[in-house]
Each structure stands twice: as structure tokens, then as C-alpha cells.
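Still learning. Any example?
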Amino acid sequence: YVIGIDLGTTNSVLAYAAIDAEKPQIELLPIPQLTAAATVESRTMLPSFLYLAAEHEVKGQNSPFDLPWRSGNDYAVGLLAGRQASDVPERTVGAAKSWLCHSRVDRNQPILPWNAPADVKKVSPVEAARRYLEHLASAWESAFPHAPIARQQVVLTVPASFDASARELTRQAAIAAGLP
């Protein structure tokens, strides 16, 4: 397959087409994501938000942030995370992609959510991007277990405004997420 990933500031999308098809058709991958605590539904877009759960939210045997491909999560990516932004903004990362091109901060340092209190374990813009990309890669592998993403042709789009440093940081996040 050839896979196109748009790592967007607001939403991320994964499209694909079979390379060997006589008439390749581009399709959007339905992306399983949390829409509420312990509720996974598929959507064509993954909102580019990351919610960092408080310790009391993940205590016990089953995390409300578990996904079909991984349990024990202490964070959520996607629709639920976006919804948490209005209720718990100090634990929600938004616009991580914009931070990747912000040259006045160290984009490898845990600075997000910006202005979060000390009890929130922050992440770097690169780490936030990695989590978005890892979620997309896991959604792909869940849908196509016979076609690991590492063996596909992947095109990751970045804005024309990204300088060389922002492009390299995005590449680092993609590699850390398991993309080829």
C-alpha cells in the first residue's frame, strides 16, 4: 500500500491505496479512538489533541483510556482528548504541530500543555506528535494486520511553512512511532 498521513494541527487523517490494484482507489482509514471514557468508535479524522490523565483517573485494573491494541494507557488521543480541552485545559495538548515550528522553545523538552501546573506530567511537542502518529500507525495495523506499516510506502505531509528543523523533528516523531 501507499499510505498518506496528514498530521494536521486540528485533525489528522490517514488515506491509502493498494499499489498493485489495476485502478487504485484512495480510501480513508476509519480510525478507532476514544469518544468517551472506555468507549471506542471509529472516525475518519483523528482530532490532534492529547489528554494527559490524572493519576486518579487510571487507577484500577482497566484504564478508561485503553484501546483495542494497547491497555494501561494514561492518556488519550483524538476525540475524547479534544472534548477534555474545554473541561480540563491544563491537561490537554492542542496545536502540538504548531509548537514543532516554534523556534524559541526547545521542542524536545516537556513543555506541553503550556502553563500546566506542576502536578501535570508534561510532554514535548515531538512526543505529542509521536503519540498522534503512533495512534494512526496502530489503527492501520489493527485494520491491516497482514500489511505492517513498516513495510508500506508512507508519505507524511508537513506544511510548506515548516523550516528544516520542524521537518526533522516531525521525521524523528514518525520514526519513533514506527513509521518507515
Remarks:
- The two ends are 13 Å apart (CA to CA).
- The beta strands are 2-7, 11-17, 27-28, 31-36, 39-43, 46-47, 49-52, 75-77, 92-94, 153-157.
- The longest strand covers residues 11-17.
- Residues 6 and 157 are 5 Å apart (CA to CA).
